[in-house]
């Protein structure tokens, strides 16, 4: 047993060494006095300065963690990529056969069906990006066709081609269209000799009726914006490289993120029942029928009229000075003396365009594509 004075001396020495350990620069000591685990002074410094706070156990733990990281990370640090048909992490297992691909499973594709794939159904499928490993885009049609109505160029009508009825003039021996009268149907190219013994006291002439009239129509051409489906179907497939499964099977994810439907899907042309195990059925139209257009342009001839004028000549065979008066149904008194008359008929006016209105719509075509997804 130490005497009290000796105990106090030991205590003071320990305190001095502890204080020195907190402040002393150990680089001044000879390295050979503090050998490392391998017998090297530099090795000891490295071990105490960097490896771990838990000694050798920490070093072993770090090595094990490094192996796990290499297995899951692969060459690019992302581990096994489960749909590319390659052994990314070098452990001898590909895609679904690799334990790192626990979120994937082998899906047996039924005979005569294609798949598996991930289904998106909604608007603007072209803007939807396929997930990594599912870069093959398959258009499976759509539903609810949308078609902006046709834009129709304006209808127009050309100058009318008019055929008028034969005009007629009624002449009277007295004024105010009284007394004896005679109606003279005439051909417009003829000159009518009245004769010297006929005294015209008054006359009247009605405008001739329209026999026929036509105007050439134009316009009504349709401009059709491209139609599209309101709901578009898109399948993202992994392509032919995915592996790790038996023949007739393909590697697909167990859980699928929005906007894709849950469950791996298979698809086939035609409207069909779903195979066993794929109970979620979606039928899409594989084509559209565009019935849009414009109604035919026509011309309404209601604005076309026929007019006639009467020219009275002092001499026979429509010679000499003449006086021209219109056919307007009014009675003309005291006409100038006339030995002959001629009548000129003209068509006038314009046609009113009709038609050129949008018509029709876009409908689903007869082709169908069935997509069935595992529930």
Which strand order does the major sheet show? 3-14-2-16-28-17
CATH topology of the domain at 156-219 and 298-354: Gamma-B Crystallin, domain 1
Report the C-alpha radius of gyration, rounded. Answer: 52 Å
Shape: rod-shaped
CATH class of the domain at 156-219 and 298-354: Mainly Beta
- Identify the quaternary structure here: single chain
Residue fraction in strands = 35-45%
CATH superfamily of the domain at 156-219 and 298-354, by name, is Crystallins
Protein structure class: mainly beta
Q: Would you identify the CATH architecture of the domain at 156-219 and 298-354?
A: Sandwich
The biggest sheet amounts to:
6 strands, antiparallel
**Mean of the pLDDT scores?**
77
Number of helices: 3
Low-confidence stretches: 1-77
Q: What's the helical proportion of residues? A: 10-25%
Number of E strands:
28
Key phrases:
6-stranded antiparallel sheet; Gamma-B Crystallin, domain 1; disordered N terminus; 4-stranded antiparallel sheet; mainly beta; rod-shaped; 375 residues
Could you walk me through the main structural features you see in this protein, from its secondary elements to its overall organization?
- With 375 residues, the chain is mainly beta.
- Among the domains are: 97-147 and 227-286 and 368-373, no CATH class; 156-219 and 298-354, Gamma-B Crystallin, domain 1, CATH 2.60.20.10.
- 13% of the residues lie in helices and 37% in strands.
- It contains 3 helices and 28 strands.
- The chain has helices at 4-23, 41-51, 55-73; strands at 104-108, 114-122, 136-146, 151-152, 156-157, 161-164, 168-172, 181-185, 191-193, 202-205, 210-214, 217-218, 222-223, 228-237, 249-253, 265-269, 280-285, 288-290, 293-294, 298-300, 304-315, 319-326, 331-333, 340-349, 352-354, 358-359, 362-364, 368-373.
- The strands form 10 sheets. The protein has a 6-stranded antiparallel beta sheet, with no helix packed on it. The protein has a 4-stranded antiparallel beta sheet with strand order 8-7-10-23, with no helix packed on it.
- A hairpin with an 8-residue loop joins strand 7 and strand 8.
- The longest helix has 20 residues, at 4-23.
- The model is unreliable at 1-77 (pLDDT under 50).
